[in-house]
Amino acid sequence: MTFLWAFIVGGGICVIGQILLDVFKLTPAHVMSSFVVAGAVLDAFDIYDKLIEFAGAGATVPITSFGHSLLHGAMEQSEKHGFIGIAVGIFELTSAGIASAILFGFIVAVFFKPKG
Amino acid sequence: MDKQPLNEQNFENAVKSYQPKPSYVMNCIKAFIVGGLICVFGELLSQMYIHWFDYNEENAMNPTVATLILLAALATGFGVYDKLGQFAGAGSAVPVTGFANSITSAALEHKSEGLVLGVATNLFKLAGSVIVFGVVAAYVLGIFRYLWSLIF
Question: Which has the closest alpha carbon to B130: A54, A66, A3, A84?
Fold first, then answer.
């Protein structure tokens, strides 16, 4: 059942992105940036956690979850360390994604030839 | 239409009939299916990590995202992901795999300029905006949330 909801919610988020691309003529970079901000805003009101509980990877795989994780890590640390904690925790949950994106992106760029 | 000469005023209209019409519905269906399938694959991976590798619901996201990024980087290297992107549009750009694709393709594109000035400098050329906007938004909202928790 989680798989079905992951498909519907994940697909639905992509459809919103496609509408922004086609109808509002945004570039993919604009769409991705707005989605990250949207994820952070949804997390500020504790909505995104409910979506993850409900749809699993349907909510964690789209780029909106990047904004959610940024704010989530920041809030976790700010409970312990106050204002400094926001800066300490902001990359706490997303470091796996960013570190692996840098590593794998670099390795692929070194060993593969550009196509097309 | 072909009687009157082309000028700046009627150029837009004259050219319109030659431009391909984007089929909104079809594009949305493609984006829905491809994006949905990537998320289902992510769910499958996270179930696998929970089942076999002692992760729990909360931290299974980390290896799942890392695996998806690895696969997307490889697919970009082989030139497969860009073909998928042409077919699926936002369906392949919005999931985290699209983030990995933008990093890898920007680095590959500038490979001829060398490792430091080409690959490393351009790695975040496209993905940088995502990180900048994400961090700025999360920082501002984090301050608000913290102040809110102090007051109440």
Answer: A66
Minimum-distance CB partner of A36 among B31, B137, B149: B137
Answer whether A51 touches B (CB < 8 Å): no
User: What is the count of residue pairs from A and B with beta carbons less than 8 Å apart?
Assistant: 271
pLDDT by residue for chain A (116 residues), tens digit each? 788 888 888 889 988 988 888 888 788 888 888 999 999 999 888 888 888 888 888 888 898 988 888 998 888 888 888 888 888 888 888 888 889 989 998 898 888 877 65
Residue A35: CB atoms within 10 Å: 26
- The residue of chain A nearest to residue B108, with distances taken between CA atoms, is A109
pTM above 0.90, yes or no: no
Q: What is the DSSP string of B89-145?
A: THHHHSBHHHHHHHHHHHHHHTGGG-IIIIIIHHTTTTTHHHHHHHHHHHHHHHHHH
